[in-house]
Amino acid sequence: MSGTRAPSDGRIDRNRPLSFTFDGRAMTGFAGDTLASALMANGVDVIGRGIYTGRPRGIVAAGVEEPNAIVQVERADGVSEPSLRATTVELEEGLRVQSLAGRGRLESPGDAVDAGRFDARYAHCDVLVVGGGPAGLAAALAAGRSGARTILVDADTELGGTLLGTRDELDREPALDWVRAAAGELAALPETTILLRATAIAYHDHQDILVAERRPDARTEGRLWHIRAGQVVLATGAHERLIVFADNDRPGIMLASAALTYLHRYGVVPGQRAVIYTTNDSTRTAAAELTEAGIEIVDVVDSRDGRAVSGSEGGDRLEAVVVDGERRGCDLLLVSGGWNPVVHLFSQSRGSLRWDDGLATYLPERAVQATHVAGSANGVFDLDGCLREGAAVGARAAAEAGFGDGRPPVMPAADGGTAIGRVAPIWFVPAPEGETAEARMFVDLERDATVADIRRATGAGLASIEHIKRYTTIGTAGDQGKTSGVVASAVAAALLGQEPGALGVPTFRAPYVPISFAFIAGRDRGALSDPIRTTSIQPWHVAHGAVFEDVGQWKRPRFFPRAGESMDAAVLRECAAARTSVGVMDASTLGKIDLQGPDAGDFLDRVYTNGFAKLKVGSCRYGVMCRVDGMVFDDGVTSRLADDRFHMTTTTGNAAPVLDHLEEWLQTEWPELRVRATSVTEQWATVAVVGPRSRDVLAVLAPELDVSADGFPFMTWRESVVAGLPARVFRISFSGELAYEINVSTWHGLAMWEEVMAAGERFGITPYGTEAMHVLRAEKGYPIIGQETDGTVTPQDLGMEWVVSKTKPFIGSRSHRRAENRRPDRKQLVALLPLNPDALIPEGNQLVAAGTDLGSRPVPMIGHVTSSYRSAFLGRTFALALVRGGRERHGEAIVAPLADGTTIEAWITDPVVVDPDNARRDG
Amino acid sequence: MLLITCPHCGPRDEVEFRYGGQAGVASPADPEALDDATWARYVFFRDNPKGPFAERWVHAAGCRRWFDAVRDTVTNQFLDPEPRR
């Protein structure tokens, strides 16, 4: 027989029927049902299948610890979620439920966008109580009454915890009356917040607790709460555990407490003829309660009497069990193998655990954070004890947070309750036929793992529970071994001839229950996953069809294709314009730092490898920064605005790290220097006008400015009015061409760009992007920090001894003199000219010496390609590369073996392949 | 996420800070006087204790000031109630 709905009883609303489908079959449940209770009431026995064995599996539990009843649920609004536990899904009208037999199939990424919408909230409180059962309610009352800011979170749809599934009484009234009164009192407290459907999933350092709150009636499906709690009370309860015997996985075998919860809370009769198999006192009223519901009690098997269930029979539903060698016909087996306190959060918070022989389980031992544990999570299983401990712990937590006197409030008296007494654990019941049956003794139902798997692990020499976990996969499924972890540890200990508590349990990891990535991501998805930075000129780029690339958070135009033009063709055209006429580029993303103070020049002398203290006002200088290890960190042009003021530029991606670097040295090593560093990246827009006709363009825009080569020489800057706008014009070049970088207020960036375009029209001014910029600078051998360099490259490796002072100390100067950094076989920057002028070596490609036998492994690699382009100016391809002892190899051949098995041969040359005499920069 | 007390701004989430490694590593007064091995020890070697560790932090997304703090690397608890500098 299968489960049926009881004619009355339960906390469901029989006036609100809800229809749903399970694998296409129409079914009906009631408001207040979980999906699991509704399936059981509809007579469904088999909900899942063993992922490896394919054996039928039914509902085992009534909560998050359920290992079998895993389903895909599509709601009426079309949102579909996989791998939900039917025991934690509230029944709703129109749910379409699919069983998920087997190992599952990963949908293609394109189909798998989670349509769910989630939020995040941040909260602070004095006392956070996790769990709204009797202990948690008592703790919340004690804390809340003290005036402490208290948050009570509970995963269920209503407060009460296990009391919702029992018939316990308090002060000779139904315990649920007290629950209702307590909930009402808490709701009325001004500083107390109750979160229902809210599962605390992680307890991190410094009292940082994550709570996943489902919100079925809100516009978002859930909120991830980040709660920073002064004190934490864990009243997280306990999970009953199964007993391992041969064929212990048949539908109809379930946890004893779960069966009673289905009966009392959901009004579902889980079977007709029951055997109870127990190890402790928590089942002592079960027989009477089942009998009252019309269920026949066939036998009560108590391990403390030396009796055992050693096997089962049946197909898709239990038909009989074997008790002490005798067959007992039944369709329901209630199992209580003992109880595992839910110590997950306590353990996550770094609290230690201890084995308790009397309860045959692990209990919290010593807290590391401000953590308190109450109730069955702490090994207290009688209702009276839970209330008293909850009240005491709640009052103590509030007092430690500075509220109240720490004296616990009076709690009602429990009559009887569910103490469990001493547990006589049965870790696994040997089968009459011997070890062969161990492959049917299931320890972890969700992982389909058995005693035989554990025996294989211990037989292979594994003696650590962490190793056994990974070898057997026990505890690694979505339930994370909530019902199986302690059992697996004890079974392994038994096979190793050790005591049950000898091995401990594997590390408890967040999240306590599975949650979707969409839940974690919240609003930080798509365009909101990372800030997008754009320059003031961005609208023009968009309007003119720029193809963008991401540079850090910046969107930069990569190239500006004409209709039908390929990237290669566009870049060649843009490069040619800059070398033959005039090009224009948006350089606003360059990092800019304003340095002020009487010691600014001295400071720059210390952070740059070359000297700046003597730089004249009105002049600019290229500088290289190293870290203390002597490796290149950043480069850029810094200009002197006044005796005590410099304008520093950094690479786009390093703007923030360079500012951090400057501040670190100013604050921690040289606090005596009077210098202030301020980022002004966002304050200035920069329009780079590049090429032989750039002077003509500037002359049109700034008629009052002397733009002659003598009047405005290379590496100087001028304050001027350009196109009617106040501007700083820097005559610097990242292309080797005559060039001016016009800096204006960001507000004027777009206007300046448009003025430059208009003034340059008669010269065919051509906007170019980062790709052409890269080609132009590479032709001149200018490195890009982070492309030619990787944190292991010195200025000397780049052939830039000329920028390294030999007379002053600077950050990294001592490291340059380390023998390791002076080795002649270090990788040094060179250019490569492929013999075939059309062959483009892939960037990142390894390089080997000419004549190397590529069939003899390992192949000695002597370098790698850092940049590789087609040069419009040279009419051929070229590359930059770092090659061992490269400076001594100019004129030699080198080989790039490609991934496809072909090779490209190239000549090694000086890194400057265009205009080595710098004849072009004066126009 | 750690809750770090900035001596200037008060307790703030870890995401506002950047880590600066071991505190109290003095820059050699005269690097040129050191042999390569001694200099390399200053550049590359840091303590990695199990237990209290004096380290540097900067409140990068706040006041941007550097300070020292002592953290127990086992428990992640900060041991000095009032971080210095």
Topology summary:
The complex is a heterodimer of chains A (923) and B (85).
Chain A: E1 4-5, E2 13-22, E3 25-31, H1 35-41, E4 48-49, E5 56-57, E6 70-74, E7 80-85, E8 96-99, E9 118-130, H2 134-145, E10 150-153, E11 169-170, E12 173-174, H3 175-188, E13 192-195, E14 198-204, E15 208-214, E16 222-234, E17 238-240, E18 253-255, H4 256-266, E19 268-269, E20 273-278, H5 286-292, E21 296-302, E22 309-314, E23 318-323, E24 326-329, E25 332-336, E26 339-341, H6 344-348, E27 352-356, E28 361-366, E29 371-373, H7 383-400, E30 442-444, E31 449-450, H8 451-459, H9 465-472, H10 485-495, H11 517-521, H12 538-543, E32 547-551, E33 554-559, H13 567-580, E34 583-586, E35 591-596, H14 600-607, E36 620-626, E37 632-642, E38 645-650, H15 655-668, E39 676-679, E40 684-690, H16 694-701, E41 717-722, E42 725-730, E43 739-745, H17 749-760, E44 766-767, H18 770-779, H19 813-816, E45 827-834, E46 846-849, E47 863-871, E48 876-884, E49 893-897, E50 903-909
Parallel strand pairs in A: 2-8, 9-10, 9-16, 10-13, 16-29, 18-25, 20-21, 20-25, 34-44
Antiparallel strand pairs in A: 1-19, 2-3, 4-5, 6-7, 6-8, 11-12, 14-15, 15-16, 17-26, 22-23, 23-24, 27-28, 30-31, 32-33, 34-40, 35-38, 35-39, 36-37, 37-38, 40-43, 41-42, 42-43, 45-48, 45-50, 46-47, 46-49, 47-48, 49-50
Helix pairs in contact in A: 2-3, 2-7, 8-9, 8-10, 13-18, 16-17
Chain B: E1 3-6, E2 10-13, E3 18-22, H1 36-44, E4 52-58, E5 66-72
Antiparallel strand pairs in B: 1-2, 3-4, 4-5
